[in-house]
């Protein structure tokens, strides 16, 4: 196993010729894909990895400067694909990783046959001409609560983001992976996410993009998925599911997994 594979806890399962790479979002790790992977292993070779900073990675490897922008994560993804000898893949990214995939596909379009973007946003903050869902004061209050008591913040943030109460298995799972992050790293990633503005990248995308979105997502309004669709440079399609929450692959797999599988199997022209 190479250094990059080891650092990112890379796991490769399945035996198909086509390769699918799964990237997770903030506060989770590769376990967020546990409901999807069993449906892929018979037909695809599946690559799972953890973003640097996830609770499952060595915190000593987290470079605060490198990961102050999403480009750092994109370079990690490209390096990982190169180390594994992958020349083309379907990339399925959730939240932060969906935009990581966008940037990586601009730097190295040859490595990606298509992108599936789940709960994706190029910018979370509202502007005069853009609705991302959050005002600056919202982010400030979240950040202050996070800094004052991280454990308490995790317990409150998890049900808001997932959609549901603490009795929900999905909420408990997200709360667990969120709490596993070292608080100072979690704070740094949180700031990176809520400060980035990646809208200028969108027109440079040439890889086909499948945008999958919950109809009710506290973190990403449906308007954002439409914005992505209109502004991505290549071909794209949006599917809004009748699901609630930012992690539908974890909270409502019975609805979400068939949608993801359909977009993986079919090209844009074939997807209704």
From TrEMBL:
GO molecular function terms noted in the UniProt entry: peptidase activity
Name the UniProt record assigns to this protein: Serine protease
Assigned protein family: Belongs to the AB hydrolase superfamily.
Keyword Hydrolase included in the entry's annotation: yes
GO biological processes: proteolysis
Domain AB hydrolase-1 per the UniProt entry, residue ranges: 19-250
Native species: Lithospermum erythrorhizon
Keyword Hydrolase: yes
Keyword annotations from UniProtKB, A to Z: Hydrolase, Protease
């Amino acid at each position: 196993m190479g250094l990059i594979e080891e650092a990112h806890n890379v796991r490769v399962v399945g035996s198909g010729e086509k390769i699918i790479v799964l990237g997770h979002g903030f506060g989770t790790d590769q376990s967020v894909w546990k409901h999807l992977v069993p449906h892929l292993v018979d037909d695809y070779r599946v690559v799972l990895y953890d973003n640097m900073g996830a609770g499952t990675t060595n915190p000593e490897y987290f470079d605060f400067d490198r990961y102050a922008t999403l480009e750092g994560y994109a370079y990690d993804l490209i390096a990982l694909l190169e180390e594994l000898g992958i020349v083309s893949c379907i990339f399925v990214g959730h939240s932060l990783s969906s935009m990581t995939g966008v940037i990586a596909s601009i730097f190295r379009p040859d490595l990606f046959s298509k992108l599936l973007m789940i709960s994706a946003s190029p910018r979370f903050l509202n502007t005069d001409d853009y609705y991302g869902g959050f005002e600056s004061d919202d982010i400030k209050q979240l950040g202050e609560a996070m800094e004052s008591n991280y454990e308490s913040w995790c317990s409150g943030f998890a049900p808001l983001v997932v959609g549901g109460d603490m009795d929900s298995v999905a909420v408990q799972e997200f709360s667990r992976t969120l709490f596993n992050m070292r608080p100072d790293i979690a704070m740094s990633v949180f700031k990176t996410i809520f400060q980035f503005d990646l809208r200028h990248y969108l027109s440079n995308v040439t890889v086909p993009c499948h945008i999958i979105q919950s109809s009710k997502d506290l973190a990403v309004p449906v308007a954002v998925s439409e914005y992505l669709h209109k502004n991505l440079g290549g071909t794209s399609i949006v599917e809004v599911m009748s699901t609630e929450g930012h992690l539908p692959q974890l909270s409502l797999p019975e609805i979400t997994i068939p949608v993801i599988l359909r977009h993986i199997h079919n090209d844009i022209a074939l997807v209704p």
